[in-house]
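Archive maintenance. Older records in this collection stored only the sequence; we are now back-filling the structure field for every entry so that each record is complete. The fields below show one back-filled record exactly as it appears after the update. Entries are processed alphabetically, and Cyclic pyranopterin monophosphate synthase is next in the queue.

ARCHIVE ENTRY
Title: Cyclic pyranopterin monophosphate synthase
Organism field: Paracraurococcus ruber
Length field: 157
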Amino acid sequence: MSDLTHFDDQGRAAMVDVGAKPETERVAIARGRILMASATLARIQEGQIGKGDVLGVARLAGIMAAKRTSDLIPLCHPLMLSKVTVDLSIAPPDAVNIEALVKLTGRTGVEMEALTAVTVAALTIYDMCKAIDRGMRIEDVRLVHKSGGKSGTYEAE
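Back-filled structure field:
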């Protein structure tokens, strides 16, 4: 069997052994958005959501989620991330765009951490605004950039 597989010699799920891989700088960027009623977006902008600063809380939730990805996604390695940013921007009339950048120097990539950060930030917005808008939709969560490691650089089209 290959050293980089999620299966052991008996065909059972196992975490990949990355111990022999060289450490390289690894960066991943993911993006997504949450669509909502324009009135909901206006209330977020005006600070009129009863649960507080929606974008500030969502940013913090995304950062915290990136750091805890191995607790959420089976077989992900626990990583010592060197940088996590989550940027949220208002996209009138009805959306918040979310971008997460995750970085480390290590033996495995950070794509799952970036995707988790975006997803949890969007879910946090949903949670904070659901009392006034249950029709919100989380869309287009995707990896847009990955660099470092054996597989090289990936850029989404």
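Update note: The mean pLDDT is 91. Residues 32 and 51 are 23 Å apart (CA to CA).
Entry marked complete.
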